[in-house]
Amino acid sequence: MTDATESSTKFQVYGARDLDQIPQLAGLDARQRLEMKAVAAVLPFRVNRYVVEALIDWSRAPDDPMYRLTFPQPGMLERADLERMVALLRRGAPASVLAERAREIQARLNPHPAGQQELNVPRLPSGRPLAGAQHKYAETVLFFPSQGQTCHAYCSYCFRWAQFVGLEELRFASSETTPLCEYLTANPGVSDVLLTGGDPMVMRAKLLRRYIEPLLAVESLQTVRVGTKAPAYWPQRFVTDSDADELLRLFEEVRAAGKHLAVMAHYTHPAELSTDIAQRALARIRGAGAVVRTQSPLLRGINDRAATWAALWRAQVRHGAVPYYMFVERDTGARRYFEVPLARALDVYNDAIRRCSGLARTARGPSMSAASGKVLIDGVAELRGERVFVLKFLQARDPAWVGRPFFARFDAGATWIDDLQPALGAREFFFEPEMRRIRDRARLRVLDAAGARAQLGAS
Ligand SMILES: *Cc1c(COP(=O)(O)O)cnc(C)c1O
């Protein structure tokens, strides 16, 4: 293992077309190979040699968590869809036919969850939408640099999978920072910009600098956040890549400009922190003055045991990272394969928290990123003879909702907020009337924009 870790300093990637080139898959029989290709024709697949050689324990595949995290599994598609795709591949159907079938399946996998495309569009003072950005919670704007819209490897459960199979045409991405800075200046209440993707760390340091430097001049901005899985999937980015030092200097400049750099690192399993290079990457990032905060969803077959989360959080604390969020698998893509009931997620969270010192208990969760906000499953209680989930918003579309407890009927099988019913005789959750108004307003804006375009066309 150490050999592979040390020698894999050159980034080498395998995509769906390269499955037959991965030596570790040589043992698969023809049927398994077809199934894997069938899934990879519908959902994104991309892995690199470091993950294959240093993180996956091939003696445990296909049950190995890092294998399940990165490789296509037959169970990720519904049986009938899998069989249809396998049959097409077996008879060598043309790519166009495969793509058409894949589109049908993809359309049924809720490719655009949580109303991201309509509800979170920031507007410049001129009324024009700010391209490549989302603004959902008051303090933080998300920005999608157009060259950062891929990753060093794809997670099999990725909630942004739709953009990696071309369903979104990178419609979220932007290569311009001037409008972003204009927006931030007009909205001084925004303290954080989160560069996200994809993974902004796939960019060369020079390019990343073009995005980060202009932000440092925005007085009201306090924190530059970078959402990334590079510390897990390609820690070489911070250690041995030819521009690793330049990247760390850029991090240092953020601090020198009086701002905070928060690396929001996606770590799913303790294996990702087990290699020497992964630990050195963390040390170097911290050495450059950044704080690493960590987050991941809870996933069946990958990290759905309390011992796994306790080990993950303890390893993070040991290496100086701050556990931040435990998410619930979102209602998109292969969610049926990875989802864990909310009640079980809560047990895993509480059990894991009990096994850690207070320094790891900064992790909040399990939390659902829903259209209305980040909804925490805070506990299970009995109220007036009814068993209920105690819920509260950690973040909300309307800041006034944050922190107010609300209750749903306990349901041992529920896996998402849409499965939950209000408890104690309520007809709806307290935020739903306001949420309807927010949706209506967004719909009106879309109609207005379409109307304005039609008028322009007519005149
Ligand atoms: C989670 C999230 C944020 C950041 O929320 P914090 O609680 O401040 O980390 C911002 N925007 C969106 C859309 C999010 O989902």
Briefly, what is this?
The chain is an alpha/beta fold and 459 residues long.
Describe this entry's structure for a reader.
- The chain is an alpha/beta fold.
- It has two domains: 13-107, no CATH class; 113-436, Aldolase class I (TIM Barrel), CATH 3.20.20.
- Helix content is 37%, strand content 17%.
- The protein is built from 17 helices and 13 strands.
- It has helices at 2-7, 30-40, 49-55, 65-70, 79-90, 95-107, 116-119, 161-164, 178-186, 205-216, 230-233, 244-256, 276-287, 306-318, 335-338, 342-354, 432-458; strands at 13-15, 46-48, 133-137, 140-143, 192-195, 223-228, 260-266, 291-298, 322-328, 364-369, 373-383, 386-396, 406-409.
- The chain has an eleven-stranded mixed β-sheet. A two-stranded antiparallel sheet has the order 1-2.
- A hairpin with a 3-residue loop joins strand 10 (364-369) and strand 11 (373-383).
- The N and C termini lie far apart (68 Å).
- The model is unreliable at 1-6 (pLDDT under 50).
- The protein binds pyridoxal-5'-phosphate (PLP).
- Pyridoxal-5'-phosphate is lined by residues 134, 136-137, 140, 142, 369, 374, 395.
- Pyridoxal-5'-phosphate (PLP) is lined by residues 134, 136-137, 140, 142, 369, 374, 395.
